[in-house]
Amino acid sequence: MKEGQQGSGKGAEKTTGALTEKESKDFLRGFGIPVVAEKVAGSQQEAVEVSRETGFPVVLKGLGRNLMHKTESGLVHLHLADEKAVRAAAGKIAQHGGADLEGFLIQPHVEGKREFVAGLFRDPEYGPVVMFGLGGIFTEAFSDVAFRLAPLSRSDAEEMISEIRSAALLENFRGEAAVDRQTLIDTLVGISGAGLHDPEIKEIDINPLLVTAGGRPVAVDALVVRGKPETGKQLLPPVDPSVLGALFYPRSVAFVGASGQLGKWGYTLLTNTIGGGYQGEIYLVNPKGGEIAGRPVYKNVAEIPGSVDVAVVTIPAAKVFDLIPQFKEKGISYMLLIASGFSETGKQGAEAERRLVEEARQAGISLIGPNTMGICNPHINFYCTGSHVRPAPGSVGMVAQSGNMGNQLLAFAELQGVGIRAFCGSGNEAMITIEDYLDAFEVDSLTGTVMLYIESVKNGRRFYESARRVSRKMPIVLLKGGQTKAGTKAAASHTGAMASDTRVFNSVCRQAGIVKVDKPMDLLDLSAAFSSLPLPAGSRVAIMTLGGGWGVVAADLCEHYGLEVAELSPELIEEIDKVLPPYWSRANPVDLVGENDPDLPIKVSRLLAEWDGCDAIINLGIVGRRHMLARMADSVQKADPTCPADFMESLLRELESFETGYINHIVSLMEKHEKPILGVNMLRGEKDKTVYKVEGSSYKGLFFPTPEQAVKSLAKLWEYRRFLDTEKQD
């Protein structure tokens, strides 16, 4: 029996398919990965002799490129204490290995109570992905793993190590030393480097990555699989951000397929655009001619007397192709294609969409959609969407791949007072993709926060790279729909088998600094928070509450979401003693004990903002009390006719004035101390919003309906701040 062709690290002669364990370890050693010392024997007698030279106890393994899952196949024998044990084990291995056995592998027996797994696989969407997690026999049972895309920075590797649920095993454990983290980081970075160095490496699987009693990680088993790189899908070319930016500043818009019938897209988009106050030229096109909404209707685009920047197309899909030469002749550069009937309908529709994109590109036309619900830019009162909602101008750039979700998010934004920079329902993204929008937001001076609802990405690696660049400048808040458990499966290794679409995508978000949320309202809450507050410098929170129960709930939520309820310093307690009655809580949360003195929350919030022991403040029940008073006034007037109505009205006016002043007060504190201060309403009325603008300030008052919304939002602000801090270190 002879060992198969061996590799030797970076300069190894390439072999297609699974490398032997010896070849795999030789390859990995070349990238600084600690592998166990081992020797090869070609016969049973030689195995005995090599074992004697190695020193007992030893581990004996069957060697062969076709030998997979060796432990389950009886090809691994541990803790062999003498020559007799080695000879017997070699006989059993020869019997089980059969014709696939190419030799024997002899290793010193390495002791350790902790086993991890590490590796790499090539995701069809994102490219090489590194994995780390709990290994050995528990790999599949607990599926406790973390992923990151290659190339891997040292901070990426550190995050992976800390992310697994079993991270406690990395510390001192049952008499064994804490794991040498630097060697572990070196290992993961080395795996990343190996995958990038050789594009034919399909999989790397190290299991177990054993930790010795002294804390040193060592690869005692490894598998490397080579293969020709798979031909990727056809990727769309990037769109210049300046080209995309011009779309949102049209000087003139033509509605092709304009209609006078209520309920038709050609009527809804037209009336919303006019009703929203758009000041540019508007042209209507319909083969029937005549008038719609008192405006002339042209039978084709050639009849339009002026130039057209954007054409909004609502005609059936089959007739769209005829527009391409007309648009080219007229010089129309943008087509907002509302029509459906393309790739969302199946294979035939996908082919039609491909042809349409090709013809549009040749004609110099940028295509948005198809199957889009429109765009808007509140900064120029341009609301060309399928729903008559008109959020105020602001700094939140929004893209949604779902029309219904886009409508809902715009409506929520308008209701909560979240200002929108620009919005696009991106539809099928046949030409302009989510990656293009990210690139455009990156260079747009008015965008401060990016909000995305996506269901898929056209180019996973580009999405990651664009998002990571954008995240260094501004937060990206993302909600993903259609997540699935079905994913990439690599039969040869644990590494690929542990992956899934959802896991890889979530890891991409963490690595790119994307703030990922799970619910639509979380998306709006985070957009409101990022556009209203400074980022916290740390995780320490001070809580000020009008009632004890709310404070307890908020404190519990802080712990749940990874925030620290800061312990008040003796000096701060002494200062608050001068403000509050002697029976106040004297701890965090700071309970205002139900006092109605309007000066108390003003003074206590100032003391907390000045205190260097906290990084953020949550105030509960300070705003919204006017609704309680209004209800009480109603009851009093019904129950006691002798109570003067003007007295209760004056109380209401005073409380409304206080709340306005309090909002101005906390915004000024944020400006002075760069510390986020967010609140929870006592009660909310129908006209109450989440965001309250303060004239002359870049920060805003922010008040949520529930403590959970406030705490969750603050936790995400801190998550993003940590990403920025890590990026600076790298």
Structure summary:
This protein has 730 residues and is of the alpha/beta class. 37% of the residues lie in helices and 21% in strands.
Task: Write up this protein.
The longest helix has 29 residues, at 645-673. The model is unreliable at 1-12 and 484-496 (pLDDT under 50). This protein folds into three domains: 112-231, D-amino Acid Aminotransferase, Chain A, domain 1, CATH 3.30.470.20; 241-530, Rossmann fold (3-Layer(aba) Sandwich), CATH 3.40.50; 533-728, Rossmann fold (3-Layer(aba) Sandwich), CATH 3.40.50.261. It starts with 16 loop residues before the first strand and ends with a helix. Strands 1, 6, 7, 8, 9, 10 and 11 form a seven-stranded antiparallel beta sheet that branches. A seven-stranded mixed beta sheet has the order 14-15-13-12-16-17-18, with helices on both faces. It is α/β, with parallel strands linked by helices and 730 residues long. Strand 9 (201-211) and strand 10 (217-219) form a beta hairpin. The protein is built from 22 helices and 32 strands.
Observed structural traits:
single chain; alpha/beta; D-amino Acid Aminotransferase, Chain A, domain 1; Rossmann fold; seven-stranded antiparallel sheet; seven-stranded mixed sheet; 22 helices; 21% strand; flat
User: Which sheet architecture does the biggest sheet show?
Assistant: 7 strands, antiparallel
**Overall helicity:** 25-40%
Give the low-confidence spans: 1-12, 484-496
- Assembly state of the chains shown: single chain
